[in-house]
Amino acid sequence: MPELPEVETVRRGLDRHLVGRRIERVEVGRERVVRRTSREALIVGLTGTTVLAADRRGKYLLLPLDTGESMMIHLRMSGQVLIAERTRPRPSHTHVVLHLDDGFEAWFVDPRTFGEVVVYDPDRVDSELPEIARLGIDPIADSFTRADLRAIVRSTRQALKPLLLDQHRIAGIGNIYGDEILHRARLRPDRPANTLDARATARLHESIVEVLVAAIEAGGSTLSDAQYVDLMGVEGSYQDDHRVYARGGERCETCGRGWIRRTVTGGRGTHFCPVCQR
Ligand SMILES: [Zn+2]
Questions:
Q1: More confident call, 112 vs 274
Q2: Are residues 159 and 189 in the same domain?
Q3: Ligand 1 centroid vs 184 CA: distance in angstroms?
Q4: Are 266 and 158 in the same domain?
Q5: Which of 45, 208, 265, 273 is least enclosed, having the fewest CB within 10 Å?
Q6: Does 138 reside within a domain?
Q7: Residues 6+ apart with CB under 8 A from 127
Q8: Å from CA of 8 to ligand 1 middle
Q9: pLDDT > 70: percent of the chain
Q10: Is there a domain that residue 126 lies in?
Q11: Which residues are designated catalytic?
């Protein structure tokens, strides 16, 4: 499932290939990806508009249009945004096609159709897209300080892993990067947040920023399902740098002594080294 680094990689591609382009025509296949409004609302909202910018909040792509409205794209589990020449055959599960004024097309492809494409009024985001209005701090886009993290960890006894994944507090971290961040910070995923002292909090802050920035530089992580790719269809390479995620039973490369343990909480796998994470 795409997390902040993958969505940021897609955002940078959109900044290059979609911003400044006029959308001449819109096709909507599977109506499930426009379930929040309707096929007609997406076609009317996008046809003839020019994309002004490519922004991101957490895992949400937000694209302001020259009409004053914005387009929101959420990749959710398996969504992809691809840019291709008009003559190229479309992959199966292409649910939305934007015909651009430069002869290219933007495709929203999503085999599992949990993803969404929506046009909304940014002035009414509270009622139209309430989950965006409730998003917490973005650890890359905003000025995310050590003091911000200190306030978050002091406020709760919640375990660190679910705390990092709580989009209302810090937006954009999911299961993969949650595990990798805690490993590099040498903190156990089940450790209560309010037991962190100032030094451990500083380590966690540094690890959040470093892991996310390194993953963005690597173009994100493409797992064996190969569903995540950038706008040109290119896979990311940060999976080669994963030290714990999906490595249960392997020797820990960081300390060379522990064995990576996999536990399941809330139906999701958590991976950590019991020796170097405390
Ligand atoms: Zn270790």
A1: 274
A2: yes
A3: 10
A4: yes
A5: 265
A6: no
A7: none
A8: 29
A9: 99
A10: yes
A11: 2-3, 59, 268
